[in-house]
Amino acid sequence: MKLNIAVLPGDGIGPEIMPQAIHVLDAIAKKFGHEFVYHEAICGAHAIDVCGDPFPDDTFKTCMDADAVLFAAVGDPRFDNDPTLKVRPETGLLAMRKKLGLFANVRPVATFDCLLHMSPLKESIIKGADFMVIRELTGGMYFGEKYQDNDRAYDTDVYSRPEIERILKVAFETAQRRNHHLTVVDKANVLASSRLWRQIAKEMEPQYPDVQTDYMFIDNCSMRVLTDPRFFDVIVTENTFGDILTDETSAITGSMGLQPSASLGDHTPLFEPVHGSWPQAAGKNLANPLAQILSAAMMLEHFGLKAEGALIREACNESLLQNIRTPEIQVEGGNHYGTTEVGQWITNYVAS
Amino acid sequence: MKLNIAVLPGDGIGPEIMPQAIHVLDAIAKKFGHEFVYHEAICGAHAIDVCGDPFPDDTFKTCMDADAVLFAAVGDPRFDNDPTLKVRPETGLLAMRKKLGLFANVRPVATFDCLLHMSPLKESIIKGADFMVIRELTGGMYFGEKYQDNDRAYDTDVYSRPEIERILKVAFETAQRRNHHLTVVDKANVLASSRLWRQIAKEMEPQYPDVQTDYMFIDNCSMRVLTDPRFFDVIVTENTFGDILTDETSAITGSMGLQPSASLGDHTPLFEPVHGSWPQAAGKNLANPLAQILSAAMMLEHFGLKAEGALIREACNESLLQNIRTPEIQVEGGNHYGTTEVGQWITNYVAS
Ligand SMILES: CC(C)[C@H](C(=O)O)[C@@H](O)C(=O)O
Ligand SMILES: CC(C)[C@H](C(=O)O)[C@@H](O)C(=O)O
């Protein structure tokens, strides 16, 4: 298979972890006879420095022309103290999502047995949890009409039927491919937009008779993922609730640095680690490349390359088991491995 | 001191736990020479059955005429399947908050050492956590303009300067009375309303030089309360974020059934357990009365009755230590105590 991959390393640790994912992809290409062509493009703070725009048109074009986008992270402390700045790395992120029509953010919440002890949750609660959170990514308060003056401000949490239908379709279908259990999370006891979500979900339910669908309020869900995470198979929710919930659910795995995600939509799909740009670690060969490498695995699986994805996952698992780990997850007395060493080890494993 | 107390038992277990709080209050009145006069009023599903209105005018008047409201909970499964019904117990709750001007919901997040093992979090993380979440309760998406038809729906997350100033004032002052650390939680990197919150908080900061103020995005906060709950002293946030966050933070204590809360505002202050109406347990003498009793303690403390509040807290602690506990927290092999037995024990302790 030939894949044109737009490569967006972004800021912070991005330029360090991205090459590791590329090395792994190259090893896969060689082993399985694929051709992966990389098209690097700038974004985030880096792009603001270069051209004043965190998601420049050139980058947009590179993404649109590619089969997939492999993205790392954006964000820079220089822009952090003033969230009111008009041009910030994060505005580029939102522009990227909107322009690429990436309406479905898919985050597997999976644990690694050998890292369970790092979860803030008790092992008896988190062990075996394995679910997927699907967050709507291009609607709701993020993109609704906004207003702000010195005395009053508002945001509009707006959703249209087609926006809701297409994300619920992704969710129902994901549940069909998994354990046939979908939890629609909303605040239908208070919000009109949630009521429309719930109405449409109920209309669609009969089309998916093999999926057991239930409904949960977001406040209740924020507790339930802590007390009973194994209850869940697929969760779907709107943009703002999803923002909060996905961060909460990645924290409970104990291995935030290992969680990949996919954003799917109208055009080119995008794959990225759940973690941020961790600017404090940039340039220090400290960052864990696994979430980036696993994002590449998700990308291959998206194109049906199951064996290729499985091999990358196996390599990552093996690296953990053999304690080839970056410092934040290294066991006591374990050797020191940096970003490049872990990447190299996984690449070798895949190649061998 | 004479206190006129509006008593709203509401639905489910409310009518069972409320009398226990009253018994305790009576014992306090006798011991300390106070006069507590109770004015019972209906609300919730119960009130819908009686007069079709979950927060009737008579109840409103009873609350307005009282010095404090002691409330239990509302909610009934008969209304749960259809959150689109116009008249539901929850609409009464929202009407109550709005009409009584209860703009500040104050939830202490405190742990009980002897119940720490029930927390979903590891003891090493949750032990010693002791903070306060202050949730704005009468603004934001709950009360902003709403619209819904078959194809489109929206809610408006709107805040005005006075609404923000008054809740931040409560938060800064609470931090002054506690450990002088305030965390303002928002989504200022995306929402205009959050940016106004942040702007106003920064304007007010200089008036509280003894408070260390920091700012955190809600998604980050939803992780941080799990990984580092001891970081927090006072958190303040808007209505919807607060709804999610307070449920998350009460889940981590491991003793949801023991958490009281206060809602303060323009008129009569209200005190209520954090837990809901637990309809499945109604009439079974199973429900834990401690959150209701501790809500009464918060009420007394609100009126400066420190020793009285402290005695109730001591009695509750003692009951836990001596395993005088309702079934959901009883230790293995412990005796069976129902709602009334636990209430009676605490009342006796206070009286003796
Ligand atoms: C950086 C921010 C705008 C973004 C969001 O809120 O969507 C981030 O929190 C995320 O979840 O990807
Ligand atoms: C019942 C519901 C309307 C209410 C809310 O969302 O405020 C509840 O969840 C709460 O937190 O008191």
Automatic annotation (TrEMBL), chains A, B:
Q: Where is the Isopropylmalate dehydrogenase-like domain?
A: 4-346
Cell location: Cytoplasm
Please share the entry's free-text remark on the cofactor. Binds 1 Mg(2+) or Mn(2+) ion per subunit.
Q: Which GO terms describe its molecular function?
A: 3-isopropylmalate dehydrogenase activity
Q: Which cofactor does it need?
A: Mg(2+); Mn(2+)
Residue positions binding Mg(2+)? D219, D243, D247
Reaction(s) this enzyme catalyzes, per UniProt = (2R,3S)-3-isopropylmalate + NAD(+) = 4-methyl-2-oxopentanoate + CO2 + NADH
Question: Which residues are annotated as site, described as Important for catalysis?
Answer: Y142, K187
Pathway(s) it belongs to? Amino-acid biosynthesis; L-leucine biosynthesis; L-leucine from 3-methyl-2-oxobutanoate: step 3/4
Alphabetized UniProt keyword annotations: Amino-acid biosynthesis, Branched-chain amino acid biosynthesis, Cytoplasm, Leucine biosynthesis, Magnesium, Manganese, Metal-binding, NAD, Oxidoreductase
Report the Pfam families cross-referenced here. Answer: Iso_dh (PF00180)
Q: What InterPro entries does the annotation carry?
A: IsoCit/isopropylmalate_DH_CS, IsoPropMal-DH-like_dom, Isopropylmalate_DH
Entry's SUPFAM superfamilies? Answer: Isocitrate/Isopropylmalate dehydrogenase-like
Positions of substrate binding: R97, R107, R135, D219
Chief localisation class: cytoplasm
Q: What class of enzyme is it?
A: oxidoreductase
- What's its EC? 1.1.1.85
Annotated family: Belongs to the isocitrate and isopropylmalate dehydrogenases family. LeuB type 1 subfamily.
Provide the function of this protein.
Catalyzes the oxidation of 3-carboxy-2-hydroxy-4-methylpentanoate (3-isopropylmalate) to 3-carboxy-4-methyl-2-oxopentanoate. The product decarboxylates to 4-methyl-2 oxopentanoate.
Oligomeric and partner information: Homodimer.
- Name-wise, this protein is 3-isopropylmalate dehydrogenase
Species this protein is from:
Hallella faecis
The gene designation is: leuB
